[in-house]
Amino acid sequence: MYADVIVNLSVKSIDRPYTYRIPADLEDKVVPGTPVMVPFGNGGRVIKGFVIGVRARAALCDDRIKDIGGICEKSNEIEEKMLVLAAWMKEQFGSTMNEAIRCCVPVKDKIENKTVSTITAGCSREILEAALGEAVAKKRSARARLYEALLTKGELDRSYALKELKVTAAILRDEEEKGLIRITTIDEVRGPYRDITERDIPPQPTPGQKEIIDSITSDLRAGLRSDYLIFGETGSGKTEIYMNIISECIASGKQAIMLIPEISLTYQTVSRFIRRFGDRVSIMNSRLSKGERYDQYMRAKNGETDIMIGPRSALFAPFERLGLIVIDEEHETSYKSESSPTYHAREVALERGALEGASVIFGSATPSLESFAMAKAGRLRLFKLTGRTAGAVHPDVCLVDMREELKRKNRTMFSYTLREQIENRLARKEQIMLFLNRRGYSTSVSCRECGTVIKCPHCDVSMTLHGDGRMICHYCGYNIERPTTCPECGSRYIGTFGAGTQKIEEELRKVWPQARILRLDSDSVRRKGSMDETLKAFERGEADILLGTQMIVKGHDFPGVTLVGILLADLSLYSPDIRAGERTFELIAQASGRAGRGAKKGMVVIQTYDPENYAIISAARRDYEGFFEEEMAYRIAMGYPPAGVMLAVSVSSEDEKALEESTGRLADVVRGLYEDKSRFRVIGPAKASLYKIKDVFHMVIYVKSYDGKGLRALGDELRDKAKAVVLEGVRVEYSFNV
Ligand code: ADP
Ligand code: ZN
Ligand code: ZN
pTM score, two decimals? Predict the structure, then answer.
């Protein structure tokens, strides 16, 4: 047996690990992540390295391969733990080891440290003045400018000397060697939240909060590692619970990771943690510069902080005394990585927690099917938190059947009920939020008379309309001509929904010219910071109506809003996604949560062509568990996650022909890999829902099974055999449970 060993964590060494032979007596002990002693270089100096892979054959000829000298004592080194996690991720999500390592450990030469260099005089004033005189005489003007600036200012930034004084780096080096100047370089201490100094006083927990805090902290105190799900609506006080438990965790000398979806990582949220925990908090987000990220990473690694807050990447914080991982809003799609390894933060958190003895808490108002199923199976301990802390009451919910509107000759996007309510709020000077769900928008075909959506008969997901007029299922590739009449009722009112937010804004202005309207969608927020500006303006009451896409339903609190209108609740149902029902429930629940956050009772109007749909009905009733039962039954029947496991084989190329050919061959390989047809099902190949992106074409093959282990083994075999059948210039990626 042979081991691939890296001797330091840099990009180069990951790409080119060294091969060593594993002595027979160590064979059982050497696994990915194991720290080993190996002879290195010509002198045979023995140094420490990490095993990143184990295999039966070596590429080199045998006599050139050296033996592993021995296994190092298990240390508490964070690199070692992260490599073990990387090895697990490789298996679990079907990536390569390199990709997994890059994700878990920010390797060395990818990061540059931001520094500040200062220039001061390296000699007495007299010598410097003399040097200035000489430079002027000899017409060495750059040097003259440097000396003069130093004499008048005392010290200069190096960048100032380079950019403003136009002194070259070579001259600076030369002057430093001569001893005329001194350059000192220090790391700039960066932290965007430095200016928050005041601390808050934690409120007394409510009885509901206290029960949960007490249960979890008593586990922590007893040294019991466990995983939990806190199910409580937005505003019920979950964050306050997390903070109490984190506080307990760090008091016992451990560290905590707090994951918050990127979109909710606002100044407001983060400063809440800083006011509670001060400078023991580190923050990661995508807006940080590389240097700032590195600072946060090093602070964590050096044990200078106890709490890391951030989006999914914060999960890999190099804490050596990790005691707790919290994932707030665990259902959020941003916790899933889009690039290889296509991991889900939830799964990685549970694994890292188990590896390092840390407890894991998930929190959500609309738990993912995965989490709630785990809770039901006893894998997660479930806590329910009921009631809003602020004393606000739940809004009235009104479900409007848009098919009836059509019968009453109303072809606009506003039902009679919604119009009446809007008029009413405008007259009372209360605020309104109108929400257009854009998922699935304009790519699905449905009937406006009976609500039927064109779905794939094999996969039960919406089919997607393409430019050439054909409808395709992006799971199995089944395709049909676009129908001109409804297959259910024969109506001619069948088609896509053409209205975007811009069009609706125009319509609103026509009907209510006196209303002040703000619009938020991806077009209108492209300008940096304009989203915050719009939301703040609305909060200050500078508009009556805020119209937008899903981005307006998340996180923002507007006490003045008493009416929320969901213009087309079903659009997300039409999206070609096995999680369409889950997303619909979630979006309606969140949108409803925006109404009546203040003292006045709110109202939600949900417009739909499919009022019998269980996702819409249960969302309107705030009945998560009812929804869960129905949705889970569907997943079980179809073999979709979390009932079954799905492997997505994504194939891409700039060469459409080579792509089609390779994908076809791959599908044949998959089908040839197993005898027992009842255990695995191959779906496709099909064009991906985004077939052409930047001149690269994408196709996909799905394999589903109730046997997760078997499917992972099949994935490994496929990866081995794929190389032989895939044509040049074609890329293949594997991911589980897309
Ligand atoms: P969630 O995370 O579930 O959305 P939060 O913890 O953010 O809920 O709580 C919602 C609001 O209620 C916040 O403004 C918070 O400061 C306040 N709050 C939470 N718990 C308490 C409490 N025990 N006493 C007073 N106010 C509280
Ligand atoms: Zn119809
Ligand atoms: Zn299909």
Answer: 0.81
